[in-house]
Amino acid sequence: MNYIPQINRRTFVVSAAALGGGLMLGMDIPLGPNVVRAADGSPEVNAWVVIRPDDTVVVRIARSEMGQGTLTGLAQLVAEELECDWSKVTTEYPTPGQSVARKRAWGDMATGGSRGIRESHEYVRKGGAAARMMLVQAAANEWKVPASECSASNSVITHTPSGRKTPFGKVAEAAAKLEPPTEIKLKDPKDWKIAGKPLKRLDTVDKTTGKMMYGIDVKLPGMLNAAIKDCPVFGGKVKSFDAAKVAGMKGVKKVVPVGDTAVAVVAETWWQAKTALDALPIVWDEGPNAKVSSATIAEFLKEGLDAEQAFVGNKAGDAKAAIAGAAKKVEAIYSYPYLNHACMEPMNATALYTDDKCEVWTGTQNGEGAFAAVLAASGLPAAKCDVHKIMLGGGFGRRGRTDYVTQAVLIAKQMPGTPVKLLWSREEDMTHCSYHPITQAKLVGAFDANNNLTGLHVRISGQSILTVVFPSRLINGMDPATFQGMAPNGEAAIGYTIPNLLVEHAMRNPHVPPGFWRGVNINQNAIYLECFMDELAHAAGQDPLEFRRKLMANHPKHLGVLNVVAEKIGWGKPAPQGVFRGLAQHMGYGSYVAAAAEISVEGGNKIKIHRIVGATDPGFAVNPAQIDRQVAGSFVYGLSALFYGECTVKDGAIEQTNFDTYDSMRIAQMPKVESIVMPTGGSPWGGVGEPTICVAAPAVLNAFFAATGKRIRSVPLKNHNITLA
Amino acid sequence: MARLTINGKAQDVDVDPNTPLLWVLREQVGLTGTKYGCGIALCGACTVHIDGVATRSCGVPVSAAVGKQITTIEGLAQNGILHRVQKAWLDGDVPQCGYCQSGMIMAVAALLKDKPKPTDADIDAAITNICRCGTFQQVRAAIHAAAANA
Questions:
Q1: Which residue of chain B comes nearest to A347, CA vs CA?
Q2: CB atoms < 10 A from the CB of A541, how many?
Q3: What is the ipTM of this complex?
Q4: Nearest residue on chain B to A667, judged by CA atoms?
């Protein structure tokens, strides 16, 4: 990722207005034929593959790397079909501006929802395959032999009858001039040699030497630095600020309003900017939201648990009648708090605005969204804007939002010709997130006289992300994402068949902005459903695994991962003395996941997690070693939330401002994670960045019940005086 | 004006003496491998060595670093040869996003100097850096691998 390619701009047909509408444009699958050159003059065989004369293969990556390994996985898929030498592969990001200028040559750049690989694998593999076919054809043309007599392997093309060979680099120029093939056959994954293998990441060296450049490290000639304060109360505005008070401070260049809601200080260094910002008198117009607190939000949601109206996300039979006629009924109320992503690298973006150009350098999960934000904030047309994507110091969904990009452009616009790097302090980052949405849930289960589960009613009350972030994706006002893991079918389907089932959502939207937080709604839904399943099993006097199995006969893939973790943890066999076990399974992002935990509890409130077995069935596994790391890492993220994570609201603002009040798991608390990757094929592919996160918490909570007989129905556990040893 | 010794080289910086060492390294000296994470010495992303001791540079005013040997991630490799911790990190494919890893590697390098063969308990006590990607399982394995490689 060492340079940014300069690609000849074609005529621009997309208007800024169209971009503002969410970039709902067609995608021109880019397989040739005009020769386009990378910055060093090397030919593009097609949009995905550039081959340099020295045989280096540059694979273009449209999605963003934020630690999840997508960059390496996508390169593996292209390289697999290209039949190139993996040791010669390097990567680069095309810019959103280049993509739009070429009719979205690289398709969707958004990297969230565990979509990086699963939504683009087919066309990037076709990109690799088409490039291989063109390289082979070019060699065949040179040798004046039929292409069918030639094959490619390890970056070398061989004419089988004569044994003649030529490396890719020698024919790339000629290949780039050929018409792209129209019929492309992809390999059977069974024959993969590069994809599907536990290869090492491509981006590690610079991450061990300090050389990797993140957005925070961008430095441009003459650049100034900005620190910002947005109104602490969401929905509030700036009333006034007294720039004169800080104008004489060392390094300070300018104090600028940023939209209606924020103020920034621009100085020579960021430390100077932050110091001056801390000294700057700002008066806020906090507005009516200043009356909101966590207690008022909880009341607001609680009302929804029994409200008349609710959206129905899944329905079978008549759950209410089954409950009314039940021999036995079990009821529980659960809740899940606001969470901040707390990426290690706080939000930042560097912008350069001139009268005829606006460029931004930033870490973003949403290249095209960031590009649209630049157009909107700069007021310039698409042909005059671009976004240069940089490695993300964590994303987890937060960097899908483009608020910090907009702010950077609004600041730079007030200092034309001078590049300005905007960096949020940790405190700004903690208090201006788009938070994991807050919900509560009431669950009621019905049994007949023989302890068979006859009905289940799940009423969720709380916040909808799509209402704020993607209102166009609501279905008659309903947010389908709220039901993740409890849907009747699709990529987040429930894994149980219950004769009478009703899953509903009473939408209650507090003023705190919600957003996608790694795993999104499976985090709370897996706790609600899987802890309650455990409650039901115990109420019926049945083993939690056997109880689930009876309801899962129609859900073989859900059952498959559950069985595997149960066997690996030793379910049904005695645990070591003082050690207790819990289970959970769920589905999200097209992948089936399950976990089994072993914990011990000291003094009734100190949990030690000894091991967690996690199984993932994503259909296809592009890099099993990286999936293992995603599983273990997601458990850290999910368990940090379970034990410590909560953003509370006081006077309309978030109370937690740093890691002292928003703690995160350390190495001492890390359990042994045993990951099982068990792809069973099928279509569409599942994702791996998020799904497993949701099963760690309910597995631990169910183990805690096994150990103590206590049900914990609200998180984080710190609020119950429970600590993680 | 403060005279600092960074990665073996003397360097004069013109800066307010209260400026945290982290920001002097990043903004005046141009060594951006040391990262800002929290600013309150909690997360460890800014860890450097001061006279060989792992120190969170966001909590150290530059005036307190004058006359001391400061080593950053950029100075860990010697004569172009990676430190054994960096090598173990490469072999173990440890980093995910990588942002916290400079600080993590510096903390581990200091630990191994004090305790060439750390136990898991030694690691738990000494390595308190936050990693939101959750690389801890690979970090622990790589620490033991680096120790075995001494």
A1: B37
A2: 8
A3: 0.98
A4: B136
